[in-house]
Amino acid sequence: MKRRQGWLFFIIFLLTLSVYLLINYPLQLGLDLQGGSQLTLQIIKEEGKVTRDELEAVNSVIDKRVNNLGVSESNLQTLGGDQLILELPGEQNPLVASRVLGKTALLEFRTQKEGTSTDLKTLQLQRLSIKELIEQYSFEEKNQNNDNFLKVIQDDLKDIEQELNYSSTSNDLYGKLIEIKKYVDKEITNLFIKTDLSGKDLINAGRRQEQTNSNWEVLLTFSNSGGEKFAEITKSIAGTNQLLAIILDGESISEASVGNQFASTGITGGSATISGNFSAENARELEVQLKGGSLPLPIEIVETNTIGALLGSKNILKSLYAAISGLIFVGIFMIFNYRILGFVSVLSLVLYGFFNLALYSLIPVTLTLPGISGLILSIGMAVDANILIFERIREELYDGNTLTRSIDSGFQRANSSIVDGHITTLLSCFVLFLLGTNFVKGFAATLGIGVLISLFTSLNCSKTILRFFTTYQSLRQKNLYLPKNNFSN
Length: 489
Hints:
This protein is of the alpha+beta class. About 60% of the residues lie in helices and about 15% in strands. It is built from 14 helices and 13 strands. The chain has helices at about 1-25, 30-35, 50-70, 95-100, 115-145, 150-165, 175-190, 225-235, 280-290, 310-340, 340-360, 370-400, 405-435, 440-470; strands spanning about 30, 35-45, 75-80, 85-90, 105-110, 190-200, 200-210, 215-220, 245-250, 250-255, 270-280, 300-305, 365. The strands form four sheets. It has a four-stranded antiparallel β-sheet. A four-stranded antiparallel β-sheet has the order 6-5-9-10. Strands 7-8-11 form a three-stranded antiparallel β-sheet. Helix 13 (about 405-435) runs antiparallel to helix 14. The longest helix has about 35 residues, at about 405-435. It is elongated, with a radius of gyration of 32 Å.
């Protein structure tokens, strides 16, 4: 008796936990249900065709960057021999992803050339001026407070171009500002000498907000050999006028001096910090690029499309109507045909639904249309397991056994058939998940999870609820468990 009560309280606890998870951890939807972005990526190779190994290497780096962006159930597939199609569910702004995915992310550490201090200071001041112009442009463009702000920025930009003896080729003002900034960053890079420390020596990257202001900084962690290289490099320039530059894709993003206190050992510990007045978004983008590694070949985003969620909302509604309608008809059939047993199966299916969806939100599983079909199919298997059990219980009742003994024997006799059927389905799910594409994997994952939960609800929840009902004398009559036309004393 205590054991039955324990199972009942455990099921109630699981139901409460499931409701809590569904409220606090919303289900994640795939691209076909919530919309997102689709990007066509072109791999650029100056000589020869892109080999299969190079295509797979680019694919691997892009996949890592997408994962670090936090996009789940993304779909990355090849198109021809030198293009990739990337689908990002939930990302409605393709430019956000393109800034991260399109960069090579080649990280270098360089030391300053001797006799370049004056040129470096001049370029740093010009870069600071350009950054201020970019911020001013973004602010004025957003607020549209001043109609003359474009002319003011254009005049200031012309002065900088004259100082640099460089003329931008971009048509729009913002494009010119970005082009000039990149030019200055590359000119700064040319004042530094390459070292043997690079992104290949990096094992991790992170970010944090600076304690003294609202800017963010990026944290680097090197391998053992990389840490030794970093210590030697910083030791060689400690206490001098030479700076250490951190270069990303040929553009200097940070230059820093090394204090005299590191002249004997250099900076040890195998870590470094990049402070470049980063915003939270810029720091995150740089972290993602560094974590994903550098691209073996540059890529260009040749097409971007935003996929709306309108079709997805219609699909969700249709799937919801189909699932609810199916459950209602199944419930009516089970109650009409199996009476009390059918009502137990309906309660068991309700528990199954809550447990299933709660596990989806906890893992999390990204729901796509194939995934929803896997969920609905697993509901059918749960009903099938209940039917096997109930038929065995009826057979025992026809043989004249008591209700309690019939229930115990019915579950015991149906147990092997149910387990065998579920195991074969799980094996199929495993093969589909291992060899299938993303959407097939979604179907296999939801079906597999549903099958496992179906085993629990069919063999444990149904039995616990049924035994709880039979504690009431009014529900122990055999005619409540057998069809009236087949029941006889």
